[in-house]
Specification:
By secondary structure, the protein is α/β, with parallel strands linked by helices. The chain has helices at 12-24, 35-44, 61-70, 86-94, 107-137, 148-162, 178-187, 206-214, 231-234, 250-262, 288-294, 299-305, 321-337, 346-354, 360-374, 389-399, 410-424, 429-435, 440-449, and strands at residues 4-8, 28-32, 49-53, 76-81, 99-102, 167-171, 196-200, 239-243, 264-265, 274-275, 279-284, 309-311, 343-344, 379-380. It folds into four domains: 4-132, Response regulator (Rossmann fold); 139-313, Rossmann fold; 322-399, Helicase, Ruva Protein, domain 3 (Orthogonal Bundle), CATH 1.10.8; 410-449, Arc Repressor Mutant, subunit A (Orthogonal Bundle). The strands form four sheets. The chain has a five-stranded parallel β-sheet with strand order 2-1-3-4-5, with helices on both faces. It is globular.
Length: 453
């Protein structure tokens, strides 16, 4: 994509020189000789870069920059001036200018500054677009729920997102969507522009989890070669989501409790108190009251976490939401896998409705993914969904496989399985790898090994 540059300069020779240089760099160039015409060009087209002279016939470059920002133009701006002073430079930076260069300037220096400015702007726009996608993905409208048991939860979530509560406790069975609700709270709150840090307490070794959460100082332990900021520090102004907090070891429970009480902590090996403003969302699928009775979870920490408890209902209690969610997943995977699947039959819907879904929404998603991936027609029938007895029978077939007396050529068997998986997945290696429960790296290695890549 071509870079679009607006050069705002009333001196003909300088403007001509810049035009020639940027055209040589294959940039699309537009010219303006004063502030009024510059603003008109900005209103008519989108620009990546504005080279803006400080002294123009009708207004200053700072006036143009100020009006640009007021009108919502986000092009990166480099101010040029023959009358450099610190006050103007400071004001330009406050208004959002990337840099401030003095005339006469070396063209090589200007080009280097321009390239650095464009790269910085590219990263900022990518970050902005990513945040916009995340807000879209975690919008309330994206949460599929009509059953009262779930809509009542969403009513509470809306209030929490709009409020100032800094501690939220999500409870529910595995697969009920606690991570989704945590994201919805963050991205629909005033904290959305700041980081959302998600960590599963059981996914990291006990000795490393403290460092991940609170950071460490250089030399705090054997491998601590540099200072490291933890998630609480990095998320300042945003949200930290601690999943499976019920399995946190007692020593870290104590440190977490102190942080929730005072909003202060010390890095591992540090002596300085660090204060941050974060919303802490925790989640567990454990019977936390029983854990308190067993002595594996601190009662005072439970009281502190339980400021705003939100209980997510299991899928089996959500009635028609099962079919709504299934339709959503089927349409999604049909698009992902480029399959002509348009829905499911009535017997298939009955089968899904009658299943108890011990794995909840996560189980339903996986069942729909497999059904769409292996479907050969336009409609999914009951037999396409492996749930309950069907799934158990499928597993039993695999477990009861008997080795023939004449033996097997394992290489040939693997070759055939790889070939069948690729055929079923329509040539998509990622999906074929899922069918064989292999990582993409391992699957690609074996494809190449069998000459199927």
């Amino acid at each position: 994509m071509s870079v679009h540059v607006l050069i705002v300069e009333d001196e003909n020779l300088i403007r001509w020189s810049l035009v020639q240089k940027f055209k040589h760099m294959e940039y699309a160039v537009t010219e303006a000789v004063d502030g009024k015409s510059a603003l008109e060009r900005l209103d008519q087209s989108a620009f990546d870069l504005v080279m803006l002279d400080f002294r123009l016939p009708d207004m200053t470059g700072l006036d143009v920059l100020r009006e640009m920002r007021r009108r919502g133009h986000d092009a990166v701006v480099i101010l040029m001036t023959a009358f450099s002073n610190i006050e103007n430079a400071v004001e330009a930076v406050k208004l959002g200018a990337f840099d401030y260069i003095s005339k006469p300037f070396q063209m090589d220096f200007l080009v280097a500054t321009v390239r650095k400015a464009l790269e910085t702007t590219k990263l900022k726009r990518e970050l902005r677009d990513l945040r916009a996608r995340l807000r879209h993905n975690f919008a309330f409208e994206r949460v599929i729920a009509r059953h009262e048991s779930m809509t009542s939860v969403l009513d509470v979530v809306r209030q929490v997102a709009r409020g100032d509560a800094t501690t939220v406790f999500l409870r529910g069975e595995t697969g009920t969507g606690k991570d989704l609700i945590a994201g919805v709270i963050h991205y629909n709150s005033d904290r959305a522009p700041r980081p959302f840090m998600n960590i599963t307490c059981t996914a990291i070794a006990e000795q490393l989890l403290e460092s991940e959460l609170f950071g460490h100082e250089r030399g705090a332990f054997t491998d601590a070669r540099t200072q490291k900021k933890g998630l609480f520090e990095l998320a300042d102004g945003g949200t930290v989501f601690l999943d499976e907090v019920g399995d946190m070891v007692p020593r870290l429970q104590t440190k977490l409790l102190r942080f929730l009480e005072d909003r202060e902590f010390r890095r591992v090996g540090g002596n300085t108190e660090i204060n941050v403003d974060v919303r802490v969302i925790t989640a567990t699928n454990r019977d936390i009251e029983q854990a308190v009775k067993d002595g594996s979870f601190r009662q005072d920490l439970l009281f502190r976490l339980n400021v705003i408890p939100i209980e997510l209902p299991p899928l089996r209690d959500r009635g028609a939401d099962i079919i709504l969610l299934a339709d959503h997943f089927i349409a999604r995977f049909a698009t992902d896998f480029r399959k002509p699947v348009t829905g499911m039959t009535a017997p298939a819907a009955d089968k899904l409705s009658q299943h108890s879904w011990p794995g909840n929404v996560r189980e339903l998603r996986n069942v729909c993914e497999r059904a769409v991936l292996l479907c050969r027609g336009n409609l999914l029938d009951a037999d396409d969904f492996l749930v309950g007895r069907d799934a158990a029978a499928h597993d039993a077939v695999i477990e009861s496989f008997d080795l023939p007396e004449e033996g097997l050529d394992l290489d040939e068997l693997e070759h055939d399985l790889m070939e069948q998986a690729m055929k079923l997945a329509g040539g998509n290696q990622s999906h074929a790898a899922k069918l064989l429960n292999l990582s993409r790296y391992t699957f690609r290695y074996r494809l190449a090994r069998h000459g199927l890549a």
